[in-house]
Amino acid sequence: MEERPGQSTDSGKPARAWVRPVALIGGMALLAGGLKLAGVEVTPDQVAETVEASGSWGMVVFASVVVASNLMQIPAWIFVLAAGSLWPFSQALALSYASTLLAATVTFEVFGRAGGTALRDIEKPWMRKILDTIDARPVVGVALLRGFLLITPPVTVALAMSGVPRRAHLAGTAIGIIPLLVILLAGQEALWSGIQSVLNLGG
Questions:
Q1: Which of 17, 107, 164, 191 has a C-alpha 20 to 30 A away from that of 158?
Q2: What Å distances lie between residue 103 and 9, 91, 173, CA to CA?
Q3: pLDDT tens-digit series, residues 94-136
Q4: Residue 170 and residue 146: Cα distance in Å, rounded?
């Protein structure tokens, strides 16, 4: 049987399994909040400016920021839209694909090691049903979630703590993120304009 991240034979302390992932999420959220208070806005425009200012290191900086931001629970669509404004479609797609896949893998590994399979300690019938469905076809389940939600950080955390095998998570993510990446990049300008309009109305 394939090893799952953070899998443990100690089932006597389910409450303790939540301490590390909750503390990790809290720490990352505080870091993200601190950046916001410091005036660091994570928007497609700001990301694009940062990457452009990095010169020849732009692609490396972009990938690194995607990975770090995903750990801080910042959604990846922001960076995909930024990529669409920086590079031609094919290049933006390739870089967004590699960066989001790496970010999902890192977040999955970090939270899997921190929280083990804590979700499996929840005895609620609805949770058991979800876990049984994922267990039956893990690659398909992960791919469907990614197809609708890309690499939304809370989903990655939940997958890691549900005990999805690493290979199934990697394969499902690799397949599932493609359609939404194409849609986001193809409609990058219109999508960001629409989001800005909504934000302006809300403000």
A1: 191
A2: 28, 18, 11
A3: 999 999 999 999 999 988 887 677 677 767 787 778 778 888 8
A4: 11
